[in-house]
Design brief:
- The structure is a single chain.
- Strands 4, 8, 10, 11, 12 and 13 form a six-stranded mixed sheet that branches.
- Among the domains are: 130 residues, no CATH class; 126 residues, no CATH class; 131 residues, no CATH class.
- The N and C termini lie far apart (89 Å).
- By secondary structure, the chain is α/β, with parallel strands linked by helices.
- About 1% of the residues have low confidence.
- The chain contains 28 helices and 25 strands.
Amino acid sequence: MKEAPFIARRPKEAEPDSFWGLRAQGIAATQDLSGQVWTDYNLHDPGVTILEQVCYALTDLVFRADRSVADHLTGPEGHIDFVGLALHPPEVVFPCRPVTGEDLRRVLLDRLADVEDAACTPVAGQAASGLWRIELRLRDGAGEHADHAKHDARALLRANRNLCEDIDDLWVVREYPCDLFAEIEVAGARDPVDVVADVYYACAGHLARGSSFVSLDEALAGGLSLEEIFEGPPVRHGLPREASPVQRGDHLFMSELIASLRAIDGVADVNRVALYPEGQDVANMQSVLRRGPGWALRLRVPSSEGGRAGVVVTRRGSTARLPAGEVHAKYEDLQASRRAQFRGGDHSGFAPAHPRGRHHEATPYSATQEQFPAAYGIGRHGLGLQATPQEKAWAWQLKGYLALFDQVIAHSAAQLAHLRDLYAVDSAPRQTYWWQMLDDESVPGITGKLYTAPAHDIEHGVYGRMDNFYERKGRVLDYLLALHGETYSQNSLRQFGGYYTAHELQAVLHENKAQFARHIIVLGRDRAAAFDDSQPCWKHEDNASGLQQRASLLLGFRHGHERPLAGPMHGLGDGREFGLVSRGPQARSHWHGAHERLQRLPLDRADLELPQAKEDLGRMAAVDGAHLDEALLRCAAHPDRYWLDAAIPGRHHLVLGPDENGAYWSLGDHDDAVAARRAAGSVRNLMLRINRESEGMHVVEHLLLRPVGASASHQMADVDAEFWPQRVTAVFPLWPARSQELNFRKLAGETVQLNCPAHVDARCLWLDFRRMGEFERLYEAWLAARMAWCRGALDDDKARVRLNHAAAELVQNLSAHHADPGSQGVVQ
């Protein structure tokens, strides 16, 4: 029985944020404040009128705040910048990297149109070796593209490679034809030719053990959550149907095939099914072995009449004769449709619709004073000409009182309008509070009367000082990271920022945390990923291992990819190149004056114009040569180690020190204290830049250094078998300022261990400038040889020999540095 429609009564207790709810709260608060002196209360009380107008204005804020989250985050262009807000859709957040053999198979079947089935197994007897053997089965008619399919499969597997993994071998199975005999009964309106084509298509799929895919709508209709749908590696063509253990086996049971055929639209019953592998006269009525080592059965669909095999179709007891050519053509159409699904350009169908909102432009604030009855004289038209000065003063007194409420509400409206900017990862502009100052448009006459200073000065001088940007924005970033289950306190990094000023350290830590939020997917999901060794990675930011990227960020490095750390250091970008030396106490540029006559030179961080910096540095012998002293490089990064020598009146001699050896450096004479301070800023900016640009790490996977085929070069390297599997070496520079601290080196080692996959043995190596240069020369050569070998033909003997030679040299270099266990990875 339908209920009669009616208009619901307003609840006795109004919503707390409604006008009546706010009014009730205001009355209650006023009564509490008044105590026993509450004398007059009626609907025309001016105090009640003011309260009602303020409550009415607050309801506008409530209305704006109640807009959907999508509306708040939608920009003027009409869409939500999910990447800029570190809010990633489910098809990006939920999937993981392929880890198991079944994961790799899923990726191959989803991405490669010519691959019908694949088997990915670790090398027999070496489950922990990290080596995979890949067996591909191609789709019907794709045999002529076997080389192309193998190339695509290798490229795909290398792009999805995990740390300390590699392809041991990859091949296409040999196929043997198999004939189908079946007796089926059809019913319904479907053309029997279409039904029989579906029978052949289903049987071919069972023999191939290929995957079928479920669309997103089907998965959602089946009750799966988005988390369940996007479990496993990402897919483009649909969710793979779960196969039973029987279906995943090497035997195809006839009972399983019969059940599948009976589910085809138009099939009323299946009386008999048999498969005849070529060369066998008798069919096994129970099961057939569909695959074995290096071979697999392929269903042969007859294109002409004759032969012992075929599908006998009956309808209402009568046998229907179907042209084999038509059945074969329909079957080919089904295969072509399947291939077209993969080769289509748009793969966005397997992704849920993203939230969409409506952008609301920020409107000027309408003051509560405009809502008062005209008798109050505080609106836009004010009092009449007959008003006395006393009445005008009273009106302005009330306007000033109401401006307190109006200004707070206007600021709140501005904050709501900028929620999208507050939660954006990028920090431009650098503010977390937004203001909307009352002006003559909202409150006529307020400028100059109540607000005697310009609005810009009030915003920055009064309100701006309350905006602790780094603290508030840091909490926003913490929230965004927490959405992905990450916490990042940066307490360890704060201990190793001694060469920064307090403001510089805040800025560096903030940008570091923003980088974490900006790249949260790669740093989380891909933390075990390896680089793609078939693509350039030297000086390429987009091809680095997950361990390298994550550890580099957690250690505060500016870069997280493979690049030269000991190459020529470009200080000013004008061709000036520095090498590092350690001259010790005998350096010619040391200063040997009396320490008591030194006056500290305070430095303000400022980026100087390049010509001025070049001129300042040109006066300093200590930094003008082709080589820098390591002690000077590390000392000059500290802002509190610059001094003026006041021994001679009128002379402004710049001194740096003490360095790690207790020595002071002479940085030349300057015209005045201002010039000396500017020169000190030039030196510090350069040395700070070189220190930061020199920081980084290399991640070397030992498995990739193993010999390819026979290698005389590797025999000379003479390393044991444990050197290759599940081992990485993280190579760090020893000369930057932070690397000289023992505790920082311990932190780096712990960071690598904590973020490395549990089954991988990671060791750290710290090299001085000269040894790092030697290592990087060999490492870059090996990366180039490895990429050339991966991209070329695998039987290219010259490429193989070059790769083995480069790998053996790198192995010898690493082995020599690891040979001394007492060094704790420090080589200098």
